[in-house]
Amino acid sequence: MEYFKSSMWRITSDRRNKHSTLLTEICVLTTIDKGKRDG
Is the model's pTM score more than 0.85? Predict the structure, then answer.
């Protein structure tokens, strides 16, 4: 049971990390896109 809990926690934190990475990528891409359009 303890193992299950820790693996669930790892999956959740991993997913959260992936999510914030995705958000960062979207922000960067949007900024680059804006810069291209303004240029």
Answer: no
Per-residue buried b or exposed e for 1-37, using 16+ beta carbons within 10 Å of the residue's own CB? eeeeeeeeeeeeeeeeeeeeeeeeeeeeeeeeeeeee
19/8 Cα distance (integer angstroms) = 16
pLDDT digits (tens, 9 = 90+) for 5-36: 888 788 888 888 888 899 999 999 999 888 98
The number of residues making up the chain comes to: 39
**How many Å apart are CA 10 and CA 7, to the nearest integer?**
5
